[in-house]
Design goal:
mainly beta, 22-stranded antiparallel β-barrel, five-stranded mixed β-sheet, 42 strands, 8% helix, 53% strand
Length: 779
């Protein structure tokens, strides 16, 4: 970790000055060597990444392009402790995990554990993160561990900060085209336009997409197809002590669901016991034979039922056969995603040592589509309709300054945000078994309000020793109106629809609020000018919330199912060293940490009072202890060769995980927490009289992980990516060839365990080997 992305491909400083820029160095900046100063704002002020007492990875926009990183999920290749997996709901949405903390759902009532920020504006949902190509970026900072003091809620596992490039003083731009495997194509452009000495604009636009990676035999449609339109405009007005930046962006992406390749596991048949097999197999048998209603199936002679179940069992297992990108699902699952936003930033120098910053923003997304999660042409588990939209308004004030002749770095700030959204899902489960009641209709109107007041102070006790202390008070409130029902019952209230006059009376309003404190304490000691030792302890949290998809068929069951859940609290201790050795030829950074997680949020069954029944809802169900080591080494044996090695060892365990029904899951692995994860990289940059040749190779390994409780595992994998490019000075032109997943490694990143149905679905496989050619013309 610790800036492994930027430095892994670094040139020496003299090379960066003498050589021509790479294709996206439109601003004339070169890449940094291991010994160069990399400036970040992880503590809301500019400072060298080597001087920050926390684990952080930094990648410049140019560096990301040198690795052919074009989408959000590929950022995990630079940061071993950061895990990005496809979401079950939404073709462009993601599940983010870090240091033993994992998001389990992307619904509006569940907050992430890793906060994502676009130009310092918080994005409250992991929805649509993969919808936009990473284009014309200044840098990406990935901070590990709790970041609650400066960044507030939902950063208990860390924060991802994406910074786009600002307008500059020169008239510059580029036009870029890309073609590749599976119909991959993109056209992008940037124009930087100075209007006056004080005012400039920078616009970016791109059109990209692909023809998909497989075929759905059910209807012949293409699976995994993508079509994206992206626009961004930034204006900057700057005077001596006053800067205004206005940003706006818009993304529209149309996709089709990648094939869910059958079942990873199907529970065996049980002749003569119960239904004779798992519910998934019973449903398939009933659909194959045109039987509706479980009673009608059970009325058949036993030998007939058994023969039907045997044939259905064979049919379900066959969906895993053949090419992993081809399948047969009866819902092709198209999705339309729209993401847009605007922000206004003011920075004012009040005095020579005190600055005021204001950042106000509005963000909006809308997702509409459907999903087929069972990976078969049977209606075992499907979502014929999915819809979500949300608008967020936020504003933040920061007052920062230096005092005591520069010995004290001080910041105080305040934050306010409100979110208003609506989510709709139609869940179809066991169509023929359930008959008219097989579809559950879920509607939720959600409002969230967040307030934060924070301060952080850094005191230079001596020339070598700094102490930092920070604290944040937060107040989070949530309101949710649930309207969940099927054709018979109001599941939100647990009563028959007939008793309340139909669905209009099926409303359950709820409200809850929380106010956890966050803090940071750290000491950093400069043992030598090139070696920093630090110790940090922090507290952060993920917000609690209200139930959205719960329900019950009795009042008691509904009351239990809709009980709110509280915040998930994380406290940690981190020790680290950051060093530059052998005249800057080797950078060696290591962090060791231990985290304690209380109130870990999980979906668990709860007993209904007065009965033997149970109902499932989201609750604070467990406590964890996570111990880890993260490292980043960069060796520059020659000026034009760089070798990087970074990784993470994570030991994540439950201290206690016993469900309210008494089931003990304490020995279960922690979600999305691989024991080992590491990356190797090699870069060769050769300068000629007429241009520059750059070649990059990346290797990434990740251990087997539990993707969904209790038994859906994603296997270990090894991925290799490579890129070679040549920059021609006289033409100001770059030609590049790249390959992703060079060895053709295939695995299931997000299998789904549905124990009640007796299945583990494979989910979509990772993408196959792809190759591409890219041309960039600068002007």
């Amino acid at each position: 970790m610790f800036a492994s992305g930027q430095s892994a491909w670094a040139q020496s400083e003299s090379d960066a000055i003498d050589s021509a820029p790479t294709a996206e160095e439109e601003d004339g900046q070169g890449t940094a060597a291991a010994s160069n100063t990399i400036i970040v704002t992880a503590r809301r002020r500019e400072e060298s990444v080597q001087d920050i007492p926390l684990s952080i990875t930094v990648s410049s926009g140019d560096e990301l392009r040198s690795r052919s990183v074009t989408e959000f999920s590929e950022l995990q290749q630079q940061t071993p402790s950061f895990i990005v997996a496809p979401s079950l709901f939404g073709n462009t949405s993601t599940i983010l995990s870090s240091r033993g903390l994992s998001l389990t759902d992307i619904r509006l009532n569940i907050d992430p554990v890793v906060g994502v920020y676009l130009d310092d504006v918080y994005l409250p949902r992991a929805v649509g993160l993969n919808a936009t190509e990473l284009l014309d970026l200044d840098r990406v900072e990935i901070l590990a561990g709790p970041q609650g003091t400066l960044f507030g809620k939902n950063t208990s596992g860390g924060a991802v900060r994406i910074f786009t490039k600002l307008p500059e003083d020169d008239l510059t731009g580029f036009v870029r085209g890309r073609v590749g495997s599976y119909g991959d194509a993109a056209v992008a452009g940037m124009l930087n336009l100075p209007v006056t000495d004080e005012l400039a604009f920078r616009g970016v636009a791109s059109v990209s997409g692909n023809d998909g990676y497989g075929t759905n035999a059910f209807d012949g449609s293409t699976a995994g197809e993508t079509d994206t339109r992206y626009f961004r405009l930034t204006g900057k007005w700057e005077q001596d002590d006053f800067t205004v930046v206005l940003r706006g962006d818009y993304t529209k992406t149309d996709t089709t669901q990648a094939i869910y390749k059958g079942l990873q596991r199907l529970d065996p048949l049980t002749p003569g016991v119960g239904l004779g097999g798992p519910l998934a197999t019973v449903e398939a048998a009933m659909e194959q034979n045109g039987i509706v209603g479980l009673a009608n199936f059970l009325a058949l002679p036993a030998d007939v039922r058994e023969s039907y179940l045997e044939r259905a069992d064979q049919a379900l297992r066959a969906f895993s056969d053949g090419d992993v990108d081809d399948g047969s699902i009866d819902i092709p699952a198209p999705e339309e995603m729209v993401v847009k936003g605007a922000s206004l930033e003011f920075q004012i120098g009040l005095t020579d040592s005190i600055d005021l910053k204001s950042l106000s923003a509005v963000r909006f997304f809308r997702r509409e589509g459907m999903g087929d999660l069972d990976g078969t042409r049977f209606a075992i588990l499907q979502y014929p309709y999915l819809f979500a939209e949300e608008t967020q308004y936020s504003t933040e004030l920061q007052l920062s300054g230096t005092f005591l002749d520069g010995a004290l770095e001080s910041m105080v700030g305040a934050y306010y945000a409100e979110e208003d959204g609506r989510e709709i899902s139609h869940q179809l489960a066991l169509q023929n078994i359930g008959g008219g009641a097989a579809t559950t209709y879920q509607f939720a109107d959600i409002a969230t309000r967040s307030i934060g007041i924070f301060t952080q102070q850094t005191l230079a006790v001596t020339d070598r020793l700094n102490l930092t202390a920070g604290v944040r008070w937060s107040d989070d409130s949530r309101e949710l109106v649930s309207q969940n029902y099927n054709s018979i019952n109001c599941l939100s209230l647990g009563v028959p629809l007939a008793d309340i006059g139909g669905i209009d009376g099926c409303l359950r309003p709820m409200k809850v609020s929380f106010g956890p404190w966050s803090y940071t304490l750290s000491a950093e000691y400069e043992a030598t000018p090139d070696i920093l030792l630090y110790a940090t302890t922090r507290r952060g949290y993920r917000a609690g919330g209200l139930q959205e998809s719960a329900g019950g068929t009795s009042v008691a069951a509904a009351d239990v199912a809709f009980e709110p859940f509280g915040p998930e609290i994380v406290e940690d201790v981190e020790l680290g060293i950051k060093s530059l050795l052998f005249d800057g030829r080797l950078r060696a950074n290591v962090a060791v940490y231990r985290s304690w997680i209380s109130g870990a949020i999980r979906s668990v069954p709860r007993t209904v009072p007065g009965s033997t029944a149970s109902t499932v809802s989201t609750q604070n169900a467990a406590s964890e202890r996570v111990t880890g080591i993260e490292w980043d080494f960069l060796l520059s044996p020659l000026d034009d060769i760089n070798i990087g090695f970074n990784g993470a060892w994570t030991d994540a365990n439950f201290e206690q995980y016993i469900t309210p029904t008494g089931v003990d899951y304490t020995d279960l692995p922690v979600l999305n927490s691989p024991r080992w994860r590491f990356g190797l990289s090699a870069a060769y940059d050769k300068r000629f009289s007429f241009g520059t040749w750059n070649t990059r190779v990346d290797f990434n390994y990740r251990d087997r992980v539990l993707a969904v409780e209790q038994d859906a595992y994603s296997p270990s994998y090894e991925l290799v990516n490579a890129r070679t490019s040549f920059y021609i000075d006289s033409a100001d032109l770059e030609l590049a060839f790249f390959v992703k997943n060079l060895t053709g490694e295939r695995f299931e990143p997000s299998p789904i365990h549905v124990a009640s149905l007796g299945i583990i679905t494979r989910g979509p496989y990772n993408r196959p080997r792809t190759v591409g050619f890219e041309v960039t013309k600068n002007f």
